[in-house]
Amino acid sequence: MDQERDFTSRTIPDQYRDTSAWPQIDLTVLSANDRFYLERIQRAIRAYLDGLSLAAVCRECELNPADLLRRLNRALIMHDDGHIYGWRAILPWARIKQYTRTAPLRADSRGLSGAFRTFLKAHPAVTTALNKLIRTGKIEDQIEVRRLTTGDYHFQLKHLCDKHHIPLTQYPFCTEDGGKRSLGRYIKEFRQRHFASGARMLGGSDAATRARTGTGFERTFIARHPFEIVSADAHRLNFHGTVRILVKGEIRHFPIHRLNLVALLDHYTRCVPAYYVAVGQEVGASAVLRAVRNALGFWKPRKLSPGLSYPAGAALPSGVIPEAVGQCWSLFLIDNASIHYSKLVADQIPDRIGCSTLWGPYGDWFQRPEIESLYSSLERRGFLSLPNSTGTGPEDPLRSDSVKSAVDLEITWEEMLDLVDVSICTYNGTVRRQFGNRSPLQRLSDAFSRPATWLPRRQPHRPPSAPDLDATRVEVKICGAIDKGRRPYVQYQNVRYTSPVLANLGQLIGTKIIAHVVEDDLRQFRVFLKNGEDLGILRAMGGWATLPHDIALRKAIFKAIREDDLVVASGENPVMAYINYKARSMLKRGSKGGKRPTIFPEATQLAKAIQVSQVDVPEINDDWMPPRPERVHEDPTEANPSFVPPIKHRGMLT
Length: 654
Fold this sequence. Notes:
Nucleotidyltransferase, domain 5, 6-stranded antiparallel beta barrel, 13 strands
């Protein structure tokens, strides 16, 4: 602390009277003589602060009274770390105060120790502007550059001196290098004192983000038992897949955009309770909702592609631990992505799960290192070894043409879903040294076998009148016309809905009611009057009630209809018509491609429609069929290879 007067045993602040709370020193590293001398000083200061007289203490320890008071006051000076110097001040050659030059500045370049700091102290306006420039790296009224050099800072220092009417004939410009080396040392020391801003200037945003970690402060949220803290995040998978179309008995493969994985992770057990893979270039709020819905449901092993299998002990918790089915959590950690502010994520998930939601700051991946570590492990130990991998980035020397490999090896996106499921299940079943050679699944099972140590939170029973997790309350109007013989119905997203009950309630025409709409499946929904009376389930009219489809797929279908790209005949299933239309559009565009395959939006849209509707692309058997483009294979033996994912599932993670 800054002292304006000398302290004695009577005037020392009470918070510093206890010397055991002072910053300590290690005397064993000193010589025997120094250690004996410092032990006498410590014994004297302790006795003096305990109430003994200064004269008696100094006589007993053979010390000078004035020197003992000087050392006591040195120990009470505030250090840069926010604490007093304490016992650190009595170490030999310990410098407490920064060197301050007292001699006047010379006109020549000799004897200039401490001259630069004296110059800055004499001109505080220049010092403030220079510190701001070093901290931000931005020059006013100029285009921002990537990094300023010492020469750039020196030029700006001259500009500041000229602005504040400091002659350039004075120090530091009268020296041989114009004070450039002194300025460079000052910049280095300033960045070391302000670590975060220095890391941002030297290493960019990634270094600045890492500088916010390792500060020594404990994390605010630490899980003490399973399902206390669960985090979720979306990750774009580093590989490509293809969609398969059968044309007159010939199978063709067209590449799609990379898949997006939305996974949940329990912080205590490091177990993945559920996930969802979204097809498309962007991830929507519905993908997060589906992942949460999967966490509350029951997991079943997939019917895997040839060459894939589940290792022993690999599964999701709800498939092997009955108590994990319907398990809720207390705190939900997500990042600051825009989809996490939607009503589905911000309102419906906390209401149904009964949890609190915490949005992390923008770009602060270290707030949820557990789930970031999950994605890193899946990439390093699995996905990056695939032949259709995009690699770690454009500069990856092992990166290949992932799109071409996916087409040549005929790797479908369904096979990639199998691989993701196996990889995540393997992650759950891999033993960890940090858990005493127990896997996350075993750690979770052990916790459920000891229910007295924590209270599992099961999902509460939902009454039929309450909307489910994935249902949205929408106000709709009952339409109809008695004079035209048009029975009551409800129109939602361009499709009419009705039921035998509603069709006979002509007195409700023009009334607004509440619909519980599940946007993942618009074939039907339940409706209620505003007084809470149940009107039953309404089904979509026409072919819309046959195949499952979400709101995004319905909007895409009607967009194609409005643009005269799609014509749905009477009685035809619109979902199958859209899938057939996208398949033909993709074939038409693919026939105009070059020698290397190209990702067309139609292929990704087709794969997304297949995922939602859960149907296969119908075979195209008509006479029109575009010619198949020839592709040049770098190796003739790779023209029609069989695909077996080259992944070792055992010992995948540590």
